Amino acid sequence: MQQDWDVLWPKIVDAAGETVYMVLATLLFATLFGTAVGLALYATRKGGVFQNRLVFVTLSFLVNVIRPVPALIAIVILNPLTRELMGTAVGTDAVIFPMTVIATFGVARIVESNLVGVEPGVIEAARAMGTSRIRILLTVLVPEALGPLVLGMTFMLVALIDFSVIAGTVGGGGVGNLAITHGYLRFDDRVMAVTVLILIGLVQAAQLLGNMLSRKVLRR
User: Fold this and answer.
1) Cβ atoms 173, 91 nearer than 8 A
2) Residue 23 — pLDDT band, cuts 50, 70, 90?
3) pTM of the model
4) CATH code of 198's domain
5) Do residues 175 and 92 touch, judged by C-beta distance below 8 A?
6) Residue ranges of the ABC transmembrane type-1 domain (predicted)?
């Protein structure tokens, strides 16, 4: 089925904008919440500055259960809660909620694993100087692990671009929705090709930006 590209191009631009909005908003919220959970995981583990086995086991269990859930299943499972909180389960704004829930636990594990890689001597030196436990976490550990953390967030950003496409196929808007409604269902390979090129461009831009930021941080 041939389509009028004079009408379609504005829809393509809008869809690309919706995808960027979904991904960046989700990354922002997931980074805030996920960093908090990741810091809690690191701090409460055995030998951590706030060692607490119960808290660590509970958080670790939640991360291990929620993080592997496939994106499509997560959106469906969270539909009732999304509708309750957002007033609807359809649309770009609504889909940010389930995307954030899943991404938060992915970010948490990234943060924890990178903090674990910080040299123990750095922590001991901070303790010897009388630095409080909170300050050790926020002003010693996080800056020390910042380079790898930026690379980890880059990986998450790319994953969220994929996630947004899946969300778009179930009413979330963006490039995924465009690919289904104007490409797949209308048997228009040209639209499918355009959406694939947009996604490749977004992924390349995200990876380039992440690599640049990590190099800048590591040179400090």
Assistant:
1) yes
2) very high
3) 0.88
4) 1.10.3720.10
5) no
6) 16-209
What is the tally of structural domains in the chain?
A: 1
For 26, 87, 100, the CA distances from 80, given in Å and listed in that order, are 19, 10, 16
Contacts of residue 11, Cβ cutoff 8 Å, sequence gap at least 6: 178, 182
Q: Please answer whether residues 67 and 102 qualify as being in contact, where contact means their C-beta atoms are separated by less than 8 angstroms.
A: yes
Residue range 76-104, pLDDT digits in tens: 888 888 888 888 888 888 899 999 999 99
Identify residue 117 by its one-letter amino acid code: G
